[in-house]
From TrEMBL:
Position of the signal peptide: none
Organism: Vanessa tameamea
GO biological process, alphabetically ordered: mitochondrial translational initiation; ribosome disassembly
InterPro entries associated with the record: T_IF-3_C_sf (IPR036788), Translation_initiation_fac_3 (IPR001288)
This protein's UniProt keywords: Initiation factor, Protein biosynthesis
Alphabetized GO MF terms: ribosome binding; translation initiation factor activity
Homology family: Belongs to the IF-3 family.
Protein's name according to its UniProt entry: Uncharacterized protein LOC113397188
Keyword hit for Lipoprotein: no
Listed Low complexity bias regions: 209-219
Region (Disordered): 192-219
Amino acid sequence: MNKLLTILGTKRLFDCRSITTRIAADGKDVSKNKQYENRITLIGSDNSVSITDLKNAQNLSTRRDLKLVKIQDADSKTRRPVYKLMTNAQYHDEELSRRKEKKAASDSNTLKGQKLMTISSKIADHDILTGCKKMGKLLEKQYEVKVVISGDESEHPKLERIYTIIEKNLKTVGKVVQLRTKGNNMRFQIVPIKDKTDQSKVEATSGQNNNNDNNKGPL
């Protein structure tokens, strides 16, 4: 009887093992665990949500002539990446939205720092314009430019003229703040223009000043 039970037990063990394993050519057991592709969360063009794998999602997008766009690397709850099927119109709107967000983030960036430019009242007009180009590049890179124009007390009209040339040439990329005269020096800062509203205000102010300053120097 014991011998019969042993034989039956061995048979059950073999039957059980045959379900979960297979025998390789060398006689070793090889696991038959099914390999699943990584699952994703798929949002349809109608905002329906389903769970599938990436290959099926790609096939679906091809059949329906839709764009398959990855919108999230991994959801915090499911740990699955999130993809969305979009029509051409939806994809175009999404791209415009991303560009607006990127521009808004860029406009909200703080200044990278301050650069000092010292100018003598004896500077030539050509050198003033060269200096304006340098200041313009700094403003475009989000730097604040601090300008000091130095000269004798009798040269105050020259300081005003140099200031006017700088202000006119940089009005599209920067605006002048904290203009002040101290001793023989004229000092002011130029900060980058971050939006069209600020630029319009600067241009309006400059337009009013132009009526009185037409003969003060080159643009």
